[in-house]
Amino acid sequence: MTATPAGTASTLVIAPMLVVLVAAAGTLLLGRHPRARTAVSLAGGAGYAIAVAAIDWYIVLGPDAPGIATYQVGDLPAPFGITLVADGLSAFMLTMVAILGIASLVFSTRHLPGGEGRSYYFPLFHFLALGVTGAFLTGDLFNLFVWFEVMLMASYVFVAYSGGPQHTRAAFWYVTLNLLASAVFLLGVGGIYATTGTLNMADLAQRLAEPAAYGLEPVPVVGLLGLLLSVFAIKAGLVPFQFWIPTAYRAAPPQITALLAGATKKVGIYAIIRLSFTIFAGAEVAVDLPLPLVDVAITGDSPLPFVGAALFVMAAGSILLGGIGAVGRDSMEGVFAYSSIGQVGFIAIPVAIATTAAGPELRTFAIIAALVYALNHTLAKGLLFLAVGTVRSATGTSRFADLGGLAKRSPPLALAVFVGSLALVGIPPLSGFFGKFLVFDAAARAGSGPVLVLLLVGSLLTIAYATRLWNRSFWGARTDAVEAATVDPVQVAILVGLAVAIIAVGVGFEPVYEFAETAAEAALDTEGYVDAVDPQTASELAGSNGGGH
Amino acid sequence: MTGIVLAAAIGTLFALGTFLLLRRDLIRVVWGLAIISQAANVYLLAMGGIAPATAESVPILAGHGEHVPETADPLVQALVLTAIVIGFGMTAFALVLSYRVYEEHDTLDVTELGESE
């Protein structure tokens, strides 16, 4: 691999970001022309899907694919410029976001929340996608911070979008929490720069693997990684940072909540996986943290055991709190918001197993389990939140007290929600079955009895709240609101499309598993990542420039 | 000496920001956020360290050759500029949002807002 791999693969890396940026600017300019605005928006969505598919095929999955490609912004070699990296892990995440993003975008063109006058809806939508995409592709820690901010800024407006008392209040809490998180992120970034002298992720991995050769004292990195982990846990909504989720998810328009749950949450998960495994797994740091209260000592020669211990506790809390919280809610989006806290716990458990895994085989397997579960959560929760949008635009409400008998009123809608709920529960042959199966299998292979019990309790809670939701809104006597409802056929078609995708992932699971396997291997392949980015030293750079200027 | 002064300044800023963040008045909360993000910026700047300047580390010194005793890492300054711009935008947004909250709820008291659900 050369220092600046020219050609298609390299240019492809930046393609999805450029497409969304153009779409965002275009929709901003065409704000006063609803038809043109919608057309540009849809074209942007299609272009994004094509760009992501091209990355999947030409960089990751195709027969001649290199597996990883980099784009050095402004042709400045790493670590001096900003590096964008597309590998299996990024491609897997981008594919999830593309599928859900298209569904949510088409849904939005059918039912623009707040009416046609809201000319800033689509630009914000694309900026949200831009932030998520940038976070998946960047290979620079500070740049990750910037993409987080791009993503958050759009999501702030969406939480406050409806403008009512509860929306502005939810938005204020959300903004306050995330501004604090941003400050903590900056502290982590600054500390890591002071400790290692670089912010390029590949360079960081390289330096931390041989701290002595670079004259570093890497011990502070463990604590700094803890700071960053808490920021990512806020984005992912893991306990004890889950409290913003129910209010924010209820306040945002449902089709945006689908994206918040399906895409921005996954950014938190992605950042945890990327930093813990690709970057910090090889760090030569002796960790010895005795916890006398619970009679456990966290020891190891990399920061991973520390990450793992924290993740286990957070994931266990999330599964229990999310599940129990979801059982008692009185509206559809309330149930799904709490459910999403619990489901992220199910994604974090295998990640935690991977950090403490004895061998590379179990580590790869556990990450595959996490990724497959994340894919299932994105599809299923995306479908269910869009269904909330459909129910709300048809009946004007999503409270259980006003709903009932929806199943007979619109059988296709009921069928789609049924498939989505079953995918959450994990019934074969849906995508959720394999997600749950792999997570259970990873826990069994790790030989952890308490984790298996926890997963079982979490699954039972899932069955309880899914059943309750179904009974309260889809069965029973029709209420007045349901009687007067007019269900939009295109919205239902989108839901059915996602339901078909959930079934397709379950039936044709083999290629999905292979993709997840490629992604997991990429996440663990620190050497390949460093080689592809190829961070230069100042002396190498001077040499290649013929002695400098 | 510079190090101690910087550390004390950062500590004071974080303490002040946290204090304001815990007030009942929403505007004070916004001020607290602004001060905390500025404290993070100062911290980031301090993380570059302060070292004797040479023509190699600071390009602008290359053509002059006069002795400059100490200078900071230019990279963190570039990072801080980005962070300041983002922080400025967010503070403005938070202020506008707190006005909208006031319009909707007729109060800026955090406790009363919490009870209004």
Automatic annotation (TrEMBL), chain A:
NADH:quinone oxidoreductase/Mrp antiporter transmembrane domain: residues covered: 139-462
The organism's superkingdom is given as Archaea
List the molecular function annotations (GO) for this entry.
Answer: NADH dehydrogenase (ubiquinone) activity
Q: Which GO terms describe its cellular component?
A: plasma membrane
The membrane topology of this protein is: Multi-pass membrane protein
Give the transmembrane ranges.
12-31, 38-60, 80-107, 119-138, 144-164, 171-194, 221-246, 267-286, 306-328, 335-359, 365-391, 412-431, 451-470, 490-509
Q: Work out whether the entry's keyword set contains ATP-binding.
A: no
Q: Which GO terms describe its biological process?
A: ATP synthesis coupled electron transport
User: What name has this protein been given in UniProt?
Assistant: NADH dehydrogenase
- Taxonomy of the source species: Archaea, Methanobacteriati, Methanobacteriota, Stenosarchaea group, Halobacteria
UniProtKB/TrEMBL annotation, chain B:
Spell out the subcellular localization from the entry.
Cell membrane
Superkingdom of origin: Archaea
Q: Which membrane topology describes this protein?
A: Multi-pass membrane protein
Write down the Pfam families for this protein, in alphabetical order. Oxidored_q2
Entry's transmembrane regions:
6-22, 29-55, 75-97
Q: Does the keyword Membrane apply?
A: yes
Record-level GO cellular component terms: plasma membrane
Which keywords are on file for this protein?
A: Cell membrane, Membrane, Transmembrane, Transmembrane helix, Ubiquinone
InterPro entries registered for this protein in UniProt: CPA3_antiporter_subunitC, NUOK/Mnh_C1-like
Entry's PANTHER family? ANTIPORTER SUBUNIT MNHC2-RELATED
Protein name, per record: NADH-ubiquinone oxidoreductase chain 4L
